[in-house]
What we know:
Blueprint: E1 3-5, E2 11-19, H1 29-45, H2 48-71, H3 73-80, E3 81-83, E4 92-97, E5 105-108
Antiparallel strand pairs: 1-2, 2-3, 2-4, 4-5
Organism: Brassica campestris
Keywords: Membrane, Transmembrane, Transmembrane helix
Transmembrane segments: 28-46, 52-73
Amino acid sequence: MSSFHVGGKVVDKVDLCRKKHWAWPLDVWPFAILYATWLATIVPNVDFIDAMIGFGDLLASHILVLLFTMWSVDFKCFIQFSKVNSIIQADAFKVTPAKFSGSKKVVPLHFRSQMTGSSSSGDME
């Protein structure tokens, strides 16, 4: 289960997330395909001014997607993260607060190495 309903006074729900590979988020590869399509089909077939208008539209939509990832935590999780079922697979989690207790946040998850035995035994995880 990737979502845990806490139901506390401050935290309502926690979702486990894993960051997608740099090439797979939905703010990279769809626009790379659209830019390549624009370059291969639109630029050779229309006037330069018309091609730049199309490029401006494409660039404006790309900028809006990037801005929405800054403004909305839910949109950022949809674009840049995938939900996982185990805390071992997760590298971040989305905290949804209770009503009137703050705003949603994506918090990175750090694992500490646990030392067993004496401190001279070296690096143990």
